[in-house]
Amino acid sequence: xxxxxxxxxxxxxxxxxxxxxxxxxxxxxxxxxxxxxxxxxxxxxxxxxxxxxxxxxxxxxxxxxxxxxxxxxxxxxxxxxxxxxxxxxxxxxxxxxxxxxxxxxxxxxxxxxxxxxxxxxxxxxxxxxxxxxxxxxxxxxxxxxxxxxxxxxxxxxxxxxxxxxxxxxxxxxxxxxxxxxxxxxxxxxxxxxxxxxxxxxxxxxxxxxxxxxxxxxxxxxxxxxxxxxxxxxxxxxxxxxxxxxxxxxxxxxxxxxxxxxxxxxxxxxxxxxxxxxxxxxxxxxxxxxxxxxxxxxxxxxxxxxxxxxxxxxxxxxxxxxxxxxxxxxxxxxxxxxxxxxxxxxxxxxxxxxxxxxxxxxxxxxxxxxxxxxxxxxxxx
Length: 380
Description:
This protein is an alpha/beta fold.
């Protein structure tokens, strides 16, 4: 019997804090998936400055309490911005929308303390746009002893089946998402036994260190296409020190941008610092890919903003030159837009959450048992 198809909007704002990716999809929450619309809405400068300022202030649980009033005000402003974005998208797509998947903006993530904080008032958003909103996707997983991240692997599974069928790419199929943090998924085969078929974890910084360095040392927000890093020279001594001083001994912990800083590059020029930090980032990503591949022949499809940094991608490939079993391919080569995989994923997760289907698993977040994430707001 054919399952009901739902139309959902996914709203994703990543750790780069530059704006909102919005996707509209149709899916049954199981196997069927089609993409309808993708769009991007940049934060205005005032909202972005507020986000950066408060994220830098909140380093501990105590900081969350001390800044609670500021966080409430910022959450309201952020939610109003999301509401405006949804309203604009509904002028472009006039068919009925069943659900909104509202990720919110991560400010603080400490799963070992059972705390994750994504700013975003699902009830207020539902009240304004008069739609069912699924929000707070990570908390249930964390309460179930999970890391609350990554949550996209179940969506990667759906994409892997499409790619396998349409392009005859053999399993296992990997996904490398380079956002602020880099995470990786391996789909072993097309079985829906997700616990044994999916493995995923965060593997290191993605764009976060490069972005931070560029923001602190220039009037730019990021290294567009990797041009700054390409123009610089890697300081091998500083790079070797950074690699020696930061080793990921276990991939069982999710990562936050506050796990990293750019102080090791202090004193370098803008370009040389960018080149060195890019190389450090590439080293950690390559190590993670080696770990998850387990010597299987595997193609990793690269998505997220970091895929556009050609210098970073080249550096990752250089670290993998001896690994004949690993290939990197840009996901856009497979009729998918690598900018919107996560926003599409949160639309899909909203549908699964609404249907009371699990969205995370022991093999993806480390949760004790599979977790049903997300809260429903129907405030209209």
